[in-house]
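Course assignment 3, question 2. Fill in each field.
Student: A.L.
Task: Predict the tertiary structure for the chain below.
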Amino acid sequence: GYDQGSGAAPSNGLPGQQTTGSVSSWPFGKSWLDGIQKSFKSREMLEASVIIHRIQRAPTRLAWFIDVGRTRGDKAMAALQRFRNELNQKRGQTLNQAGMDATNTVYNPISALEDYYIPVSIDQRGSKVEVLEGTPWNELPDLDYFNRKLSSGLRVPFAWLQPVQDQIVPANGRQDTATVEEVEFSRFVSRIQMMINDTLDKEFKRYLSMRGASFDPDSFIIRLNPPDDYARSKERAILNDSIETARAMLDIPFISRRTILKKALGWSDDEIAENEDRLREEMGQSRLPAAHQEDMAPAIMGPNEHGTMPEEFAEEPMEIGNLDMETEEEI
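Answer field:
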């Protein structure tokens, strides 16, 4: 058996399962993540670059417009420097190397949080301050591009990784309607499960045998839980829309109910006949002639708005012996 102290496991104790038939990837196969490895590394580098850019190179800054009048260029620069030093430096008394009093100026970080008082001339000329906004945090098109590339490589619907803003996501993580991406991802997961189900079943039973458990290998089968059946959910949504359309068409007097069954619900003649037979069985009716099939259509559509079936089905069943052979063949 496996010795935990040795730090090595025998090769025959490692379960092997490949989802691809490539010989070059033997014995462990090729990971599904290999296709997105480059995109993942690019996304990591982009995230680091975005953080550096946001913190060091693109913060929100203040633009100071200092009124220097008609001062010469060199004096204007000196005036700007004096104004800057007044705002960003703090003066304090200290002792120099000779032991004499001196004035020391140090950087004052608190000045950025203080109020500023800037003089303005009588003609409204003077200094002003404007805010230069940096790149907003919610606009990262490059990062969104790599996120979509990662999701497409994993075949995971992008809506699962980044929900839409101002949209409530249900507790089960899915919406009422299934998108094409969700249906394709469900089928993709099902294909992978079919590849590894047999290996999981064999290795689990092998583990039970090694542990000395007494069991019948044919008494159970290990299978992974199937993903949400989005295809069936989509079919149910289409069926609900068809039923609503059929109910709306019932109010149109010149459209027969059999036509509604064919056009709105998409039923064939065989399906309509089968549904009629089942309705007769449930309601205790005998088979009706073709002349009465149009009268049978209200029952096919179900109860009326009062929750009851049409009155004609409360009558005594017709005798099947009164029908000729030709009518029975038509039915």
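Instructor remarks: The CA atoms of residues 96 and 196 lie 79 Å apart. The first helix runs from residue 37 to 57.
Grade: pending
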